[in-house]
Amino acid sequence: MMGGDMSGYALWTGHWLWMLVIAIILVIPAWRICQRAGFPGWMGLLILIPLVNLVLLYFIAFADWPANRTGGRNG
Predict the structure, then answer these.
(1) DSSP letter (8 states) at residue 46
(2) What tens digit of pLDDT does each residue of 46-74 get?
């Protein structure tokens, strides 16, 4: 396939490692924002799905936050 050259596989592995790092950088803040707003934290995973992430941002921005209705702690 590549004449015994393994450099293509290293690039492939590096790509997935980079994607994992970016996913972690995006998911952790989205998870915390959802929790602080009073929504389930797993909704932060939706930030990884194209177009759904935009819907999530608008939903969080304009929805009535359950944390505000119940007088819950934001932290």
Answers:
(1) G
(2) 999 999 999 999 999 999 988 887 765 55
Start-to-end CA distance of the chain, whole Å, equals 54
User: Counting every residue, how long is the chain?
Assistant: 75
What integer best gives the mean pLDDT of the chain? 84
Task: Tell me what pLDDT residue 4 has.
Answer: 58
Instruction: Kindly list the distances between the CA atom of residue 56 and the CA atoms of 5, 52, 62, in Å, as whole numbers in the listed order.
Output: 43, 6, 10
The CB density around residue 34, as the number of other CB atoms within 10 Å, is: 22
- Cα dist. 26→4, 14, 67 in Å? 37, 18, 22
